[in-house]
Amino acid sequence: MKARIQWAGEALFIGESGSGHAVVMDGPPENGGRNLGIRPMEMVLIGLGGCSNFDVVSILRKARQPIDSCEVFLDADRADQEPKVFTRIHLHFVVKGRGLKEAQVKRAVELSADKYCSASIMLGRAGVEITHDYEIVELT
Asked: One Pfam family, short name please (predicted)?
């Protein structure tokens, strides 16, 4: 896997993935930025959420669960001192469908956390306290 990050002046950077997709990253005005893009640490958090949600949806679909949507809401704390690493991240999944089995949803979240989500496992090994929970919304 490869990526390229190009400085575009001030605190603005363009990140390009190996698959050819680009994203703008910028800092807040107090750090010389113009607030034109996402912050790099926000990218890490979004990457974690995307990795975990991808797993949960994939596992539920393979289990033939009638999933209509899945959102994950992340809440994180960072250290007060440099380096301002994440110290705690909580992922809250909201899974919607008709007739979803709670045991399957629980299993999907646990498998993502413990076995499949590279981002979650990597951050956990680095000392970040990562917790997960879920809720099921029954659609009519």
From this structure: OsmC
Structural domains counted in the chain = 2
Mean pLDDT taken over the chain: 97
pLDDT tens sequence across 43-90: 999 999 999 999 999 999 999 999 999 999 999 999 999 999 999 999
Query: Does 29 share its domain with 62?
Result: no
Q: Report d(CA 73, CA 92) in Å as an integer.
A: 5
Distances in Å between the alpha carbon of 102 and those of 90, 94, 106, 133? 20, 12, 6, 12
Same domain? 33 vs 52: no
DSSP 96: E
What is the residue range of 30's domain? 1-38
Cis-peptide, bond into residue 29, ω within 30° of zero: no
